[in-house]
Amino acid sequence: MIQKNRKTIIFGFVSTVVASLLMSTNLYAKSKESSSNTSKSVETEQSRIDAYRKLSQIMSIVEEQYVDDVNTSALVNKALKGMFSNLDAHSSFMNEKEFEELNIQTSGEFGGLGITVGMKDEALTVIAPLEGTPADRAGIKAGDIIVKINSDSTIGMTIDKAVSLMRGKPKTPISLTIVRKGELKPLVLSMDREIIKIESVYTKMIGKDILYVRVVSFDQKIASEVKKAMDSHKGVKGIVLDLRNNPGGLLDQAVGLVDLFVDKGVIVSQKGKIKTENISYKATASSSDDLKTPLTILVNDGSASASEIVSGALQDFKRGVVIGTKTFGKGSVQVVMPIGNKEALRLTIARYYLPSGRTIQAVGVTPDVEVLAGEIKKGEEGLSIKERDLQQHLQNELAKVDDTEAKKSEKEDKNIISDEKLYKDAQLKSAVDIIKALSITNR
After folding, report:
1. What is the pLDDT of residues 101-130, one digit of tens each?
2. Which CATH number does 201-370 carry?
3. Which of 342, 361, 340, 365 minimizes the C-alpha distance to 352?
4. Among 66-75, 127-136, 226-235, 375-384, whose mean pLDDT is lowest?
5. What dihedral angle (degrees, nearest 10) is formed by the CA atoms of 172, 173, 174, 180?
6. CB hemisphere CA count around 88 (13 angstroms)
7. 298 CB-contact burial (10 Å; exposed 0-12 / middle 13-18 / buried 19+)
């Protein structure tokens, strides 16, 4: 999400209605003098005035005749809530409490579950749990639908309200009731809130010559951290960029990450109603770090927003092979517009477009190679006789080999993804196999 201060101030609701009504006579008179070429725009303006008038009339009726006394400010706030809930899943009006909670959320440290949610088909849906957080350890998965937060039903609940309920003091308990595809009954998962601190980038080696880079979320310095990892592993035969369950984050970091692998062209563009929001972000040769090393990108239905920009752009540039399952499909731009000092609007102002011109919104990125998550079962070996089974094999040399393998295995637990772990992740295994094939082809 991008935060901006807007010069345009949204005036009080009542004054807007009154001003519109005062202007209606003059506007209507001018409309009579307009040519037929402008009749459509005049009719549109007149319909807007009629709509404001209708809203003003209804507000007056409710204030005068509703059985209980109503607070006009509270009534307007509720009307605004309803208005924004019917725009899209990411736009909202935030009152003082909600705006304060947003500032806490974006400060980077808060008591919560480590879960990113969005609205999908009008249901509160998990985009992704962040690794190592309470939600991850409790077994929350991308695609889970949250139907209850403790005893509160999420039907008709806004994202802001849901996030507010899930946050709280560290070490306090919370339960989520979820509906999961393939499960016959809802699941109730309990956990304790924690201060959420995430290691956004970490690396390991697969064998001796394939670099594995995991990007958990796009916060500050992602591009520079990945570049540092690549610079310290020069000469590798391939790179696996893992964006699975990455809910997104800062746009500039997504652009910077793609820029490491390409040297020209538009990485992503955004287009909205206001011309100043139509922006193209281009690759620069000076920022490119590696244009040739075989690259695979792992995604799933928990990959959203910035991670979809990275995977989709690299796919369009034909710089890497995207592997996994279709991504979430969040390709819109939101800005936070403060209204005074205590309230704010979060408004969708543009859509993202990939280098080819295609949109991500509600479509997502389709992998080049679709691989479902799961484990690869090894076939049982038949009866075979090897050197070590012979009675006169070289005992001393075999002992040396066994000792070396034991030490190597001990080291693999910390810095290397072992074959055993590789076979437990079918998507990662496919990414490695494709890199090996690309390495042979390039050679």
Report:
1. 777 665 555 688 988 888 888 899 998 888
2. 3.90.226.10
3. 361
4. 375-384
5. 130
6. 15
7. buried
Residue 440: what residue type? Answer: I
Is the predicted pLDDT of residue 339 greater than 50, yes or no? yes
Q: How far apart are CA 141 and CA 378, in angstroms?
A: 26
Residue with structure tokens 């507010």?
164
Stated as kind and residue range, the H or E segment containing 238 is: strand 238-242
Mapped to the 3 state alphabet, what secondary structure does 382-404 carry? CCCCCHHHCCCCCHHHHHHHHHH
Q: Do the beta carbons of residue 216 and residue 131 sit within 8 Å?
A: yes
Q: How far apart are CA 216 and CA 131, in angstroms?
A: 7
pLDDT at 13 over 50: no
Residues tagged active-site: 305, 316, 330
Which homologous superfamily does the CATH classification assign to the domain defined by 96-195? PDZ domain (2.30.42.10)
CB 175 within 8 A of CB 150: yes
Query: Residue 85: which H helix or E strand, with range?
Result: helix 72-85
- Take residue 132 and report the two structure tokens written for it: 């190592």
